[in-house]
Amino acid sequence: MYNSDTEVMFPPRVIGHLRNLRGVDWQRLVDEVCSEKADLLERAAFTLMMVRMGGCQTCTIDSYRGMRGCTMCARQTIRRFRGSDHDLVKQFEQCKSELQQFFNKS
């Protein structure tokens, strides 16, 4: 059974659905990435973070995660994260730094 919410990698359209799953630091990060002021680097960094955390590389359309859809999978990934909101923000900043280095080399 195909779920229309399932994509190849974490879709940025899901970011806003994750806002209320954690505390204030997390909500600020989601608001920042969803704002009109956010640039491609910030959205790409958030996407990279979620791809790594959610294991998007190993997901297939007919897997359990694929059948549930990206929104449900991402929500579960954030809910199950055992670190603090600060740890999530640090992961985001690390991904942002990695992408910035990559873009600077190009």
List its traits.
globular; 5 helices; mainly alpha; 106 residues; single chain
Explain what the structure shows:
The chain has 106 residues and is mainly alpha-helical. The termini are far apart. It contains 5 helices and no strands. The longest helix has 21 residues, at 85-105. Helix 1 runs parallel beside helix 5.
Low-confidence stretches: none
Give the CA-based shape. globular
Global mean pLDDT: 93
Helix content: 55-70%
Strand tally: 0
State the major sheet. none
What is the H-and-E element order? HHHHH
The proportion of residues in beta strands is under 5%
Structural class: mainly alpha
Radius of gyration from CA coordinates: 14 Å
How far apart the termini lie comes to: 40 Å
Number of helices: 5
What's a quick, concise take on this entry?
This protein has 106 residues and is mainly α. 59% of the residues lie in helices and 0% in strands.
Topology:
Blueprint: H1 24-34, H2 40-54, H3 64-68, H4 70-80, H5 85-105
Helix pairs in contact: 1-5, 2-5
